Amino acid sequence: MGALILQQTINALTVGSIYALIALGYTMVYGVLRLINFAHSELFTAGAFIGLALAGALGIAGHPTGGLLVGLITFVLVGLVGVSVEIVAYRPLRGTSRLAPMLSALGMAVVIQNAVMLIGGRRPMIYPSFLPSGAIDVFGAVVSYKQITIFLVAVVLMVGLELFVNRTNLGVRIRAVAENAETASLVGINPNMAISLIFFIGPGLGAVAGILYSSFYGVATFTMGFVIGMKAFTAAILGGIGSIPGAVLGGFLLGAIETFGTAWMPVLTGGVIGTEYRDIFAFSVLVLILLFRPAGLLGEHVSEETRVYKSDF
Amino acid sequence: MRVWPGALAMALLPVLALIAGQFLPAYPLRILDMILLYAILGLGLNIIVGYAGLLDLGYVAFYAIGAYSWALLASGQFDIHLPFALVLLIGASLAGLAGILLGIPVLRLRGDYLAIVTLGFGEIIRVLMNNLDGVTNGPQGIARIDEAHLFGWTLSTPHDFLYLLVAMLVVVFLFVWRIQESALGTALSAVREDQDAARGCGIDTTRVKLVAFAFSAFVGGGCGVVFAAMQRFVSPESFTFWESLIIVLVIVIGGLGNPFGALLGATLLILIPELLRAYADYRLLLYGMALVIIILARPRGIISRPFGPTWLMRRLGGGKC
């Protein structure tokens, strides 16, 4: 029993790390532009495919040290794609309505997904693992090195991001623009620079998550981003969208809810609610949390009186 | 102000659709039917998104409730065979009821949170339909649904549905337009522009939002019944998140809060993929690009909000604008 719970906790941490990495991209973009970046989930997929292509080109498939190199190059490449998507499809729409950029993002999602399909193919691709193989036994639970690596990579990236945002000059600029773009520009910060930076880091993290995800499951398909992206977005909302620690908390929490919910619901309900309701747990929890804490768990609660934006769309 | 010129101009569109229907072969006719169906869905969603300013990303849930009403109440599934007119009413009412039940807890939320909760609701409905095998037959869906009969008239060919859809479009169009011009419409636009100020004017914001939500869901449910009768097959496949997004795109591209916009948006969104059919694999890529380009060119929609039916009536009737 104890081993089972431990095993599920480890599985939850693995899935949670991936959700958290993707959720960071959603939350950072939302924090600054109040935009749901639908293209983000497709950049996650693009990351996995670019990683695959690089591994083939450099001839380092399935090697952990090579994996580090592939991860870095993919981060930069997808980051640059993210920056260009923002410049082409979102920047011209800034200051119109809030719906327009969101739907433009949707159009970009369709474009990127189909570009990945045309280049990478329709069929699921077998994915070489960039993660070390093998497993250890911890109190009866099997912990693979893959899982440990995924967790560690995610933690390193998240701590790095936290330090970057809170301790560096560029991070201060990002936070200033997130707080209020106009005021930030009054003190000499270029909001476009900060926004480009966000569109570099967010998709970069998403791309690394794509490589980790595909390495873990050993497969990559061009449609895989949609569901994962939706869950990661749920995680971002759960933690309080716009908040970086919130996205991390939400990611891990969603991983836990899904893993434990899927495992225990059939037992608790005597088989009436089976594992096929996996996707419902996430959404039901989300709906419930929002009803009691409309701004998410760590989200800043903006009172209606002080809100600057009166009309939502 | 004279009423006739404007009314005649607006009547031109349904008449044109009916005339075109006489000459079109079955395949283009089916596309025309789909355009009309999405136009009606767009008009319905416009009440909540365009007039009340609340983003609903789970509109397909109401559509699905309507479709499954017809599939369950007029097929061999439970061996119930109710008449079409009755199910149309039941399906639309069930969807409206679902809208109210969802709306009561949810309408306290604002903006994106509301969007995401409605998205969750849409997914929950779809997963339920996928998994309640005993009722909905799961992913296989329900086939061999009854042919629809409306007061002795059999609806089976795309041509029959053209008449039904044109009639529905006219009714829903007038309904939506009158809502827009009514006290409720004024209240809704006050809520959209500034909820706090609206409350200050004595508008019960939760109640008007709830009414808008219910009307919107009602129209969605009605469309679902017609869709199921047209396809004579339903499965959860038809009610994905993507479908909700298409309906949002219909009204945003056409023009948010403008009934003409929904018509134009539906035409474009259904026609573009058909025109791109020749490009096979590149079809969706080009479709995505077309969407981005249209939005970049006209962020407020192709026909923007002020140029609605009321404007047309005034313009052609010689009244002041």
From TrEMBL, chain A:
UniProt cross-references to InterPro entries, sorted A to Z: ABC_transp_permease (IPR001851), BCAA_transport_permease (IPR052157)
Compartments (UniProt record): Cell membrane
Keyword terms, alphabetized: Amino-acid transport, Cell inner membrane, Cell membrane, Membrane, Transmembrane, Transmembrane helix, Transport
Keyword Magnesium belongs to the record: no
Record bears the keyword Iron-sulfur: no
Entries under CDD domains matching the protein: TM_PBP1_LivH_like
Main location group: membrane
Transmembrane parts of this sequence: 12-36, 43-62, 68-90, 102-121, 148-165, 194-213, 280-299
Mode of membrane association: Multi-pass membrane protein
Family membership: Belongs to the binding-protein-dependent transport system permease family. LivHM subfamily.
Protein name (Swiss-Prot/TrEMBL): Branched-chain amino acid transport system permease protein
